[in-house]
Design a protein that fits this description.
Blueprint (H helix, E strand, L loop, with lengths): L24 H9 L2 H23 L4 H17 L1 H14 L3 E5 L2 H14 L4 E4 L3 H5 L2 H7 L3 E4 L2 H8 L16 H11 L11 H18 L2 E4 L3 E3 L4 E6 L3 H7 L3 E7 L3 E2 L2 H15 L7 E5 L10 E7 L3 H5 L15 H4 L2 H6 L10 H12 L18 H5 L6 H19 L5 H13 L2 H10 L12 E2 L7 H4 L4 E2 L6 H17 L1
Helix pairs in contact: 3-12, 9-10, 16-18
Bound molecules: iron/sulfur cluster.
The site of iron/sulfur cluster (SF4) has 14 residues, from helix 14.
Length: about 500
């Protein structure tokens, strides 16, 4: 399928906003690895969610069929995205909603700011939303004199601590109970000074703090998990009820949603409502699912807006081998099983989207030539655990390898002189292209013993090979190669048989 068929622009428009930071993954990861508290919190939290997920997934005999259905539905949506978007717009508008199209983060932020000003507000309450984090909405609104209050408990903790989320589903996964109590005591003006770190007391403190905001806010901002084209309906899936308060109490509701969140119909929602809660929180059903279709007179928000965000999604869609990254339903199951994420945490990825999905989605949205994100596809051992866990069967390892190849190709194009890696790969290709040449090189391998210490380990290699010995030792080559062993072994067997 060509990019022209999909209605994509000939020159891709890449995304901007909180999709990368100033430092590449290896630099940030090294720093995060030094944080023992972070590693302990992450290890405990990811293992707990992972085990819960395994238990509830095992209850469904048709789990694999559900995954297949989810994957096929998403692929079908991507194949006819322009048509479905138009159908959704028609239905949403017919029910009194207003659609705004935003090409990138800057456009989306401006649209939201103007809508808040039109509503005469200088404060908003927010439902947890990856799309608004991606465009840096809170920071933008603050620069323009508008205060945005996060109402999801974990988002609230992160916001009060002037920190960044570390996990897409559990943004405060890197903080433990006593750290949270300290944040509340420091940042909540009316909090009980005798607050303890028991979960019930912490939740009560947050509830009292937020209740005042819910009752006074004129405008709420949300994301959306799904949008149903056949009715023009939006859906938010959440656990705390804060979303329901934001979606029903204020006069004006502004939703920011990536264009890829569409589903063709209500019946498709049935599949995803089984896949999402089990994969994300390890629950059979999530506590709150809110669905709304335009405006209902006298009931709920009377001004309903939807900002449809591209921000690099068209560019990702135009990449035939990478586009399935847009199937993601943000469940975070891939993060909870990833050995790299478990050790570095989310901040090392430098993007709103961390973990295995972030390692492919961020470079697809910004372009692999974006210097900071070019290192992300290497932030994986390619063990494949993310693919096994993904409820919509995104083949993350395959896309990682594809993006690594794109990265190598793009850097090769800018170099006049071949680099060490190019020369090494050419030499390896020449050597491995002939059994005779390979045998000759193997004969020289035992010389590698000269570089090993008394413990028979090589601790330092030169040039690009130093990357290997920087974090692990290399065993000294054996005195006999496999090829020699095989020849000798079979020679002995042959002579025994002859005898
Ligand atoms: S890539 Fe798959 S497992 Fe990871 S967050 Fe997205 S849907 Fe969930």
């Amino acid at each position: 399928m060509s990019s022209t068929y999909l209605g994509m622009p000939a020159v891709p428009v890449y995304g901007s906003g909180n999709l990368h930071t100033a430092e590449p993954f290896p630099v940030a990861a090294r720093r995060e690895l030094d944080n023992e508290q972070l590693r302990a919190n992450l290890g405990h939290a990811t293992h707990t969610i992972r085990d819960k997920r395994l238990r509830v997934v095992a209850e469904l005999p048709d789990w694999e069929e559900l995954r297949e259905a989810g994957s096929a539905t998403k692929a079908a949506v991507m194949a006819r995205l322009p048509e479905l978007l138009e159908q959704f717009e028609e239905n949403f508008t017919a029910r009194g909603g207003v659609i705004h199209w935003a090409r990138d983060a800057a456009e989306a932020n401006e649209i939201v700011r103007d809508l808040i000003r039109d509503a005469g507000a200088d404060e908003v309450v927010k439902v947890k939303s990856m799309a608004t984090q991606e465009i840096g909405l809170n920071e933008y609104l603050e620069e323009h004199g508008i205060s945005a209050f996060e109402t999801d408990l974990a988002e609230l903790i992160v916001q009060l601590d002037h920190d960044k989320p570390s996990h897409i589903l559990v943004p405060a996964i890197h903080k433990n109970r006593s750290q949270i109590r300290d944040i509340f005591l420091r940042e909540m003006p009316d909090v009980d000074p005798n607050l303890t770190d028991t979960p019930a007391r912490l939740a009560e403190a947050a509830r009292l703090h937020l209740r005042r905001k819910f009752l006074s806010a004129k405008v709420a901002i949300s994301g959306a998990n799904f949008a149903l084209a056949d009715t023009g309906t939006l859906a938010v899936v959440e656990s705390e009820g804060n979303g329901r308060m934001c979606l029903t109490l204020p006069e004006t509701l502004i939703t920011v949603m990536g264009v890829e969140k569409l589903l063709p119909s209500w019946t498709d929602l049935e599949v995803f409502m089984q896949l999402l809660p089990r994969s994300s929180t390890g629950e059979r059903m999530n506590p709150y699912t809110s669905l709304w279709t335009g405006v209902t007179e006298g009931d709920g928000p009377q001004n309903v807006h939807l900002v449809l965000l591209d921000n690099g999604r068209s560019a990702a869609l135009a990449d035939e081998r990478g586009r399935s990254a847009l199937h993601c339903i943000r469940c975070s199951a891939c993060m909870n099983v990833c050995p790299v994420y478990e050790r570095t945490g989310g901040h090392a990825y430098g993007s709103t989207y961390p973990g295995p999905i972030g390692a492919i989605l961020s470079p697809l949205l910004t372009g692999i030539t974006s210097e900071e994100n070019a290192s992300l596809p290497y932030a994986s051992s390619l063990c494949g655990a993310c693919y096994d866990a993904c409820p919509v069967k995104i083949n993350i390892p395959e896309i990682l390898v594809h993006l690594r190849s794109e990265d190598v190709q793009s850097r090769r194009g800018t170099k006049k002189v071949p680099g060490q890696m190019d020369v090494a790969m050419k030499a390896a290709s020449w050597m491995m292209g002939s059994g005779r040449r390979m045998a000759l090189v193997e004969k020289a391998l035992p010389l590698g013993k000269l570089a090993a210490g008394p413990d028979r380990k090589i601790k330092k290699l030169p040039g690009i090979a130093a990357g290997w010995t920087r974090s692990r030792d290399l065993p000294a080559p054996p005195a006999q190669s496999f090829r020699d062993w095989w020849a000798k072994e079979h020679e002995d067997t042959a002579s025994k048989e002859q005898a």
